[in-house]
Amino acid sequence: MSQLITFAPTTIWKSQVTDLKDRLIEARKAAGKTQKQVVDAVGISQPAYSNLERGKAYGTRYTTEIALYLGVNPIWLATGKGVMRAPSMEEIRRKNLEPMLEKHGLEGLQEKLPGLESRLHSIFVEKRTISSRLARAIEKGLEIPVGSLDYDATEEKFTFDSNVTSGPRIQGRVPLISWVQAGEFCESVDLFEPGDAEDWMPCPVNHSDRTYALRVKGDSMTNPYPGQKSYPEGTIIYVDPDVAVTNGCRVIAKLDGEVTFKTYAEDMGRIFLRPINPSYPAMEITGKDVSICGVILGSFSPG
């Protein structure tokens, strides 16, 4: 009988896990990189990486970093799900607009979207970039769901557990940003543009168009007890600023200019930001000037 191995956030069979070596080799050769270049760029040791390509190791916490360096989809590299190279947000938006352009023509679309005539001309004739703001304006004018133009219909869905109930929004791609950007975005209503993000990550759960992804730093949200919910360093977390904060949910918060990832907890009228790792203290924020930047919808642990 095949050996069952848990590979967060899903469970897969050993015969599938060993295919990681083939995906690594394929991605590395397609990128024209040597093993040494990957090792030097990512920080993994040479023996550890060699074991991955030889099929002697079944996973690594560096999967996301390796995928981003090689220019491939991190979820495909880790699990084999989806496509090797995910289309860019620009490609997805153009693909979704093609049927509308074929049906109505440019002049027809311009008639349906008064006020956007020149911008439609720029994206279809001059091949200018379709910004997030323009995509939302087109969706509003055509009375289609928010985020529809960002939805990749060819993408295989990837289910991961979530500790909140999100609104009836869309699935698609969200920007993977830095913690500095998250702090800036916490006080802004602007949407991210394609060039603002390190990468655009598939997000398989319903989310608002302001959702973004972060890569966890440190071990304050790492659970030392096996089998318990944990977010080790390198985990990708999905953050939705438009989801209501509830007791017990995981949040991104900004306090004294610092951005942190913690559990939001209410207790007898007092409010705390609590780490999962008991080695770190809880922070009481009752009455303090704290901004909740967003609620965690779920996470993806590549290694």
How would you characterize this protein structure?
The protein is α+β, with helices and mostly antiparallel strands. The chain has 3 domains: 4-79, 434 Repressor (Amino-terminal Domain) (Orthogonal Bundle), CATH 1.10.260.40; 89-150; 170-300, Ribbon (Umud Fragment, subunit A). The protein is built from 10 helices and 11 strands. Helix 7 crosses helix 8. Residues 1-18 and 155-170 have low confidence and may be disordered.
Topology, element by element:
Layout: E1 4-7, E2 10-13, H1 14-17, H2 20-31, H3 35-42, H4 46-53, H5 63-70, H6 74-79, H7 89-112, H8 117-124, H9 132-142, E3 170-176, H10 179-185, E4 199-207, E5 212-215, E6 236-240, E7 250-255, E8 258-267, E9 270-274, E10 283-284, E11 290-300
Antiparallel strand pairs: 1-2, 3-4, 5-6, 6-11, 7-8, 7-11, 8-9, 9-10
Helix pairs in contact: 7-8
What keywords describe this structure?
303 residues, 434 Repressor (Amino-terminal Domain), two-stranded antiparallel sheet, 32% helix, 22% strand
CATH topology annotation of the largest domain? Umud Fragment, subunit A
CATH architecture grouping of the largest domain: Ribbon
Classify the secondary structure makeup into a structural class: alpha+beta
Global outline: flat
Report strand %. Answer: 15-25%
Task: Give the biggest sheet.
Answer: 7 strands, antiparallel
**Rg (C-alpha, Å):** 21 Å
CATH class of the largest domain reads: Mainly Beta
Name the strands of the widest sheet in spatial order: 5-6-11-7-8-9-10
If you average the pLDDT, what whole number results?
79
Helix-strand topology string? EEHHHHHHHHHEHEEEEEEEE
**What would CATH call the homologous superfamily of the largest domain?**
Umud Fragment, subunit A
Q: Termini separation (Å)? A: 24 Å
**Helical fraction:** 25-40%
Number of domains: 3
The tally of helices reads: 10
Low-confidence stretches: 1-18, 155-170
Work out the number of β strands. Answer: 11
